[in-house]
Amino acid sequence: MSSIDSVLLVAASTIDRDLFQLANETKAVQSARVWVVIVSLISSFVAISPLNNDIIEMTAFSGSLYGACFFPALVVGLFWRGVPARAAIVSLVLGAAATIAWFVAKRLGLTSLHEVYVGMSVGLLTYTGVAISSRKYKLI
C-alpha cells in the first residue's frame, strides 16, 4: 500500500502540474484529489480485467510501460540538449499506446513478441524523430 499511494499522488500531481499547469494552489490540490480517484479507478479496472490472469505478466507489462514511456526522455535526454518537451510527451503517449495495444494483441494470441520491444522502439523512434525534426538539440 505504501508504494501505490505514493504512485497515485505522483501520477495525480504530474497530471495536474505538467499536463494542465494549474497555477492556483487551492485548485491544484482539489484537482489532484480528483485525479487520484480517476487513476485509482483506471488501475482497479485494469486489475480486474479479463485480460489479467497472472501477476507476473502484469508486473512485466507495467515494466514495459515504464520503459516505453520514460526510457527515451530520461536516457536519450541525458545526451541531447534542447530537445523540445513535446518530444517527451509524444514519445510517452505513443510508446504507452503501442505497449498497451501489443499487450492486448499478445493476450488475444495475435503475436508472441513481448510488448517491451515494441513499446520502447516506438517511444525511442518517436523521441528521436521529434528531436531531429526540431533541429534545436545539441549532442554532448
Structure in words:
- This protein has 140 residues and is mainly α.
- It has two domains: 1-48, no CATH class; 51-140, no CATH class.
- Helices cover 76% and strands 3% of the residues.
- It has five helices and two strands.
- The chain has helices at residues 2-20, 25-47, 55-75, 85-107, 115-134, and strands spanning 80-81, 138-139.
- It has a two-stranded antiparallel sheet.
- Helix 1 packs across helix 2 and helix 4 runs antiparallel to helix 5 (115-134).
- The model has no long low-confidence stretch (mean pLDDT 80).
Main sheet attributes: strand count, strand direction, barrel closure: 2 strands, antiparallel
Identify low-pLDDT runs.
none
Mean pLDDT: 80
In quaternary terms, these chains amount to single chain
Question: What percentage of residues falls in helices of 4 or more residues?
Answer: over 70%
How far is it from the N-terminal to the C-terminal residue, by CA?
A: 41 Å
Per the principal axes of the C-alpha atoms, what is the gross shape? flat
Structural class of the secondary elements?
mainly alpha
Provide the spatial order of strands within the biggest beta sheet: 1-2
SSE string, helices as H and strands as E: HHHEHHE
Number of helices: 5
Number of domains: 2
Keywords:
mainly alpha; 76% helix; 140 residues; 5 helices
List the helices and strands and how they pair.
Blueprint: H1 2-20, H2 25-47, H3 55-75, E1 80-81, H4 85-107, H5 115-134, E2 138-139
Antiparallel strand pairs: 1-2
Helix pairs in contact: 1-2, 3-4, 3-5, 4-5
